[in-house]
């Protein structure tokens, strides 16, 4: 821990890769994809992020559903897969991604401890509502915030401002993400940033500084205390 996390009133979570396993989108289609499942997951996620950031830089916003579909089309083209039925099933699976096993227990623990809980995500309201419901997380959050309210993707500062508008001072909010770029951006914005570094990534060379780096959400300490 680099700085104290005392005085936190709200814990705000990224969704994709933090609460929901993006690689589980291919689970219903593993028999068809075979050895192509792993490269499809990798290319799809990489291109999804690239398209978000490129659209933000160009001022050409499209919602996360379209970006996800465009990224999938690119990935299928790269792998030489032409199957409209498979594409449809993969997109449908993105609405019902699996939650990581550590998610529900830590949300229950934080809720019991008196924290306000929220999601702040690049996903559309429809995508997030579907993922939350299918993962059995309905009723655990005080708010589910989508970048569509700001009209631009993270890491634009106006997105993090959505959480401040909902819960108050940035320094009283712990923002939790598995994406390094997201954590550093939230820290630079002024939030208390917790990096759930599930894959052991190296530190980013970006503005900001995580307050806490954890290997899983289960390691989130009880010392993240309510003010």
Q: Which characteristics define this entry?
A:
single chain; 227 residues; Rossmann fold; DNA polymerase, domain 1; 6-stranded parallel beta sheet; 6 strands
CATH superfamily heading of the largest domain: HAD superfamily/HAD-like
CATH class categorisation of the largest domain:
Alpha Beta
Question: Would you give the CATH topology of the largest domain?
Answer: Rossmann fold
Tell me about the biggest sheet? 6 strands, parallel
Task: Catalogue the unreliable spans.
Answer: none
Overall SS class? alpha/beta
How do the helices and strands follow one another from N- to C-terminus?
EHHHHHEHEHEHEE
In terms of topology, how is this protein built?
Layout: E1 10-13, H1 30-33, H2 37-58, H3 64-79, H4 84-93, H5 103-112, E2 116-121, H6 125-134, E3 143-146, H7 157-167, E4 173-177, H8 180-189, E5 192-196, E6 212-214
Parallel strand pairs: 1-2, 1-4, 2-3, 4-5, 5-6
Helix pairs in contact: 2-3
Describe the model.
The chain is an alpha/beta fold. It has two domains: 10-20 and 97-219, 3-Layer(aba) Sandwich (Rossmann fold), CATH 3.40.50.1000; 22-95, Putative phosphatase, domain 2 (DNA polymerase, domain 1, Orthogonal Bundle), CATH 1.10.150. The two termini are 18 Å apart. 41% of the residues lie in helices and 12% in strands.
């Amino acid at each position: 821990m680099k700085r104290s996390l005392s005085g936190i009133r709200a814990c705000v979570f990224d969704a994709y890769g933090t609460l929901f396993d993006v690689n589980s989108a291919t689970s219903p289609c593993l028999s068809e994809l075979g050895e192509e499942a792993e490269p499809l997951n990798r290319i799809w996620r990489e291109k999804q992020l690239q398209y978000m950031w490129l659209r933000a830089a160009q001022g050409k916003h499209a919602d996360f559903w379209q970006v996800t579909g465009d990224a999938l089309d690119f990935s299928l083209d790269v792998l030489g897969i032409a199957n409209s039925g498979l594409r449809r099933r993969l997109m449908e699976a993105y609405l019902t991604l699996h939650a990581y096993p550590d998610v529900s227990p830590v949300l229950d623990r934080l809720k019991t401890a008196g924290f306000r809980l929220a999601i702040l995500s690049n996903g559309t309201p429809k995508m997030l509502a579907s993922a939350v419901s299918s993962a059995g997380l309905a009723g655990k959050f005080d708010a589910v915030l989508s970048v569509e309210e700001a009209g631009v993707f993270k890491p634009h500062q106006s997105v993090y401002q959505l959480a401040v508008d909902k819960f108050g001072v940035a320094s009283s909010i712990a923002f939790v993400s598995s994406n390094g770029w997201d954590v550093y951006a939230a820290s630079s914005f002024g939030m208390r940033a917790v990096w759930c570094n599930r894959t052991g990534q190296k530190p980013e060379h970006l503005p900001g500084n995580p307050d806490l780096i954890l290997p899983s959400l289960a390691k989130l300490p009880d010392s993240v205390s309510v003010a």
